[in-house]
User: Fold these one by one.
Assistant:
Number 1:
Amino acid sequence: MGNNRALITGVTGQDGAYLVEFLLKKGYEVCGVKRRSSLINTQRIDSFYQDPHVDSRNLILEYGDTTDSTNLIRIIQEFQPTEIYNLAAQSHVRVSFETPEYTANADALGTLRLLEAIRILRLQEKVRFYQASTSELFGLVQESPQKETTPFYPRSPYAVAKLYGYWIVRNYREAYNFFASNGILFNHESPMRGETFVTRKITRAVARIKLEMQDKLYLGNLSAKRDWGYAGDYVSAMWLIMQHHEPDDFVIATGENHSVREFVERAFKEVGIIIEWRGEGLNEQGIDSETGKPLVLVDSRYFRPTEVHELLGDATKAAKLLGWKPQMSFKELVRRMVIADLREAEKERLCQVNGYN
Ligand code: NDP
Ligand code: GDR
């Protein structure tokens, strides 16, 4: 294991944090690429932070950005990774409609820049490349469940950018013999999920409503269905994809899907609130069955110009070739996220009560 060196772009994100933990436990030396920001953005990986003055560090962080080729070339040249995990992305589908050009630059061209950096440095024989591809590629689904052979139909600037990423990875594999693989991951969540993705937005609001720190939760399309798994399970799939004897593309999913409405019901149930639905469309409301108070409302600002209505993955290939299977159930995932957000909300309330905010 001694010589395993992993470079992770997007190290400060949800998956970056789980992957750092996973690889450090496996004895890897890890170099994470973080963006410069005006406020510190390393909260998710702070527990793995090592003092730069200590020689024997196995986690280092470098400033970088997938929109900056020279910086990527320099970092790769200096660190000489054996594996590169490209997790960096403007990853919010709704936001990609507001920032389509930036999303294409960071997510599509960013992938090309990394592959070119490897080619320029003549490292293709020595390094394996993982691309964070996505179930959003299936978009307007052409068959269900979706597997590796299902045709793509992207429905957002994000998904179109990721489509380029997917194909440029395959092209470099075929053209230059790169060990470059796509993990086509379906939605995966955790207590470290960004607060504006729907699952975390819900569990955070449920905790705050329970503790009377918030009255209502505003959501968009309640009928959307997703195949939601646990991020901790999914980073192990990334690693297994990289250890496979040949580069290939794999769907990673649970094979079970639920609507946003069901997620809301389950999350509220964790804090003892039973939600009943009344009304339709923009007037639909989730009511606390005991008090009659409307807790969940629909706000059209969260709708997308083109929506991905329903996704469901078939990860049979990953099970057969990699031996990968998801471990955490939907119910347990929601429970853990709600518990974590209750703790967060309690902390915030304690600070407020004691005048520390
Ligand atoms: P996050 O949004 O939590 O993290 C994205 C990471 O990318 C952050 O570290 C962010 O930095 C970084 N980043 C954004 N833009 C740039 C840039 N221009 N240069 C360098 N770094 C950048 O995403 P997740 O961890 O959830 O997802 C990881 C990857 O997997 C993404 O590529 C995502 O598109 C993809 N994916 C995610 C799925 C999911 O369900 N989570 C499913 C399928 C694919 P900062 O912290 O500074 O914002
Ligand atoms: P998604 O995740 O678009 O699938 O992309 P998100 O949690 O943002 O949306 C899932 C579904 O919920 C509906 N929805 C809302 N979504 C958000 N964010 N906020 C709301 O208020 C809301 N109300 C309803 C959405 O319309 C959608 O149908 C995630 C990202 O991690 C991508 O990077 C990744 O590629 C895919 O998952 C797989």
Number 2:
Amino acid sequence: MKRDIEKILFSEEQLEARLNELGQQITKDYQGKELLVIGILKGSNIFTSDLVRKINLPLNMDFMVVSSYGNAASSSGVVRILKDLEQSAEGKHLLIVEDIVDSGLTLNYLKDVLQSRKPASVKICTLLDKPAGRKQSIQIDYCGFEVPDEFIVGYGIDYAEKYRNLPFVGVLKREVYSH
Ligand code: PRP
Ligand code: MN
Ligand code: MG
């Protein structure tokens, strides 16, 4: 596991500190609003779980399972919804929680799908933003950190379904994914 990591970008302590800040900001912004936090699985599993515990408001949680990468190292461009919301989005303030925005395809697709369900608002919170990967522009309302154009894993983010359980965010060694 760890021997496949080139370098650590954000340690457990750095992640925790930034999540505290994001949680405080979200707590301020959603005072008195009916908030539905939507975790996009599988990648945002860990980030969503940690983030909601930093939000000091009554809220609902729901999850969608979508996949665009499969086991490939780059996006297929086709977003598949494998599991949809279990509750209605109508009239609610939706906060989509993602682990990373790369090409922007996943979130553009999801935002359109959710917008069509007549919510009160739709905002995006991502732990990581990789601007160099962008193919479609997307407005990010809350962002943890920007990352360089490298293969990122850990804290929920996988390569071929591995490395999600690393407690930090790191860069995968090139030799692991290029052959
Ligand atoms: C990854 C990541 C984001 C998306 C970002 O998910 O978790 O959801 O890709 O890439 P994009 O901006 O280029 O669309 P993936 O499809 O690998 O599924 P996973 O969350 O189950 O790993
Ligand atoms: Mn994902
Ligand atoms: Mg993935």
